[in-house]
Fold this protein.
Amino acid sequence: MSQALTKTEFNFPGQTAVYHGKVRDVYTINDQYMVMVATDRISAFDVILPEGIPYKGQVLNQIAAYFLDATSHEVPNWKIASPDPMVTVGRRCEGFKVEMIIRGYLAGSAWRDYAAGAREICGVRLPEGLRENERLPEPIITPTTKADEGHDLNISRQEIIEQGIVSEEDYTIMEDYTRRLFAIGSRMAAEKGLILVDTKYEFGKADGKVYLIDEIHTPDSSRYFYAEGYQERLEKGEQQRQLSKEFVRQWLIGQGFMGQPGQHVPEMTPSFVESVTERYIELYEKVTGRTFEKASCQDLTGRIESNVIGCLASLGKQ
């Protein structure tokens, strides 16, 4: 079994802060740059699972870098460089406490709410008679609050603005960027025989300008269906073939775990962990059209530290 990076405790030159998220560890440098390390941790139902997934961090970081580069002409983003397979370095932004979720199809938690009788999600009305995984009349934005701990909560555009979480001016920009990014991502997915079902984006602000931050179009933030056979499966009421983290959620649900109080995470066997790694690599290759090249797992922290220090030194000379 390859080594998995589940914890980092770096002390980079000029480091002024560190934030350990569910999956990513973010280091602030001189209050100017952010060093984002995509670890091999995996979360589901807002719970960090006990086993790391080898190469997952590399997959997430390299998919995000691929799409950040591909969309930068349309939406400004935080990325400056990717000095290591598991690291992105970029400009420091003050993140908005909202995640912008956009859905082109009725799937996942939105379907579960709809099936339970909800006809309005985050202030957006949905028509009657929709089926699971059916394409929506048009993509809808269903934001959530960004929780430091615990579950993110659905919230409407109106509530976000009324509560002063984001100004109307900035939120309008975020909405526009969200729709642009989803349109580009959907086109790129279609070219690879995939459907971008839903995804989330995060935004921040630096020097008065709104930037896309964090990851984009990765299996942790997005759901993809295979386009081939989609309509047939929909008509038959069958589950879609998909590339996303949803299969991990479904496995957990099947084991009686949905992140509720009193529930215990089921054992993640080595064979299951390996199967998750394989699914992440499959998604990377399918969504980018590139062959995944496994970076060395020997001394992961040493490799990352060396590559990041070199990058920061070059930035300091600019």
